[in-house]
Amino acid sequence: MTLVTALTLAVTLTIYFTARWYFGTNRNMFTILAALCCVGVGKAATDMAMFYRAGCCSEAARDNIEMHLGRLQGLYDLFLTSYNKNFQISHIAVAGREVCALTETKDCDIRAAEQHIRAMMEQDGFRDYRIRIFRNLDQYLDSLDELGNIEDEKERKSNSGVLDLLLSISL
User: Hey, is 171 helix, strand or coil?
Assistant: First the structure.
């Protein structure tokens, strides 16, 4: 991520300063091109900052989750952003009409995260889902075991849609 940011910045600066040196002024089409490249630089820098800020699922939690996951579909290391708060989700799994997630961050506002996920899902047409976020790994593993018992093959397609949505709204 840092390499991409550095390369896009280097390309942008090279375009600008080379054109300025060659033409003797910054009034040329390459200045406009360099200015447009700044959008990509800004996006890369923002992604880099959020990447370094976001946490990852711990190895111990990952190993335990893998033992309990079975045939469930899930995602690791999501970082969700809302207008007011950010939410680091270590793992999230979907089965039936239930979404269960684990956060290992102590300052994560669980209620706000549940409401944010619910709002995003309803906006995308996924209604009447029960959303639960846990801080305690043992409770989350018990929840995964329960979800593994209720998963139905018909639900897998809609569960993939929910997971795609969650992946698209996270960094």
Answer: coil
